[in-house]
Design brief:
single chain; mainly alpha; Helicase, Ruva Protein, domain 3; 4 helices; 76% helix
């Protein structure tokens, strides 16, 4: 009986270690991405990016991945300004306006 309890404790500790290691890796990757993007942007654009992060994390992650892909593909010339970042944001969040039509009899 005691062996079963200690084995369960060991398994729980192993799961906890794996989860902690996974989260640490995710945090390291996030920090590397942020450092890369920060080098590409003006301070104002980076501040806006961090505001997006607070407001909508999914959009932030999408934008961060896009910026890194652009940098890797050498599609970034110079630094990214706030208006350029706003343009990218508007492209990511663009939804065509829906139209409602009423047919009268």
């Amino acid at each position: 009986m005691a062996k079963d309890a200690s084995q369960d404790d060991n398994e729980a500790q192993a799961k906890m270690r794996k989860e902690v290691n996974r989260r640490l890796r995710e945090m390291q990757i996030e920090q590397e991405k942020k450092a890369t993007v920060k080098r590409l942007m003006t301070p104002e654009a980076y501040e806006r990016l961090m505001n997006v992060r607070v407001a909508n994390y999914e959009l932030y992650a999408q934008l961060l991945d896009l910026l890194i892909a652009m940098a890797r593909g050498n599609r970034v010339t110079g630094t990214i300004t706030e208006p350029q970042l706003r343009d990218l944001l508007s492209r990511l969040t663009f939804k065509p306006e829906s139209r409602i039509e009423f047919k009268h009899k």
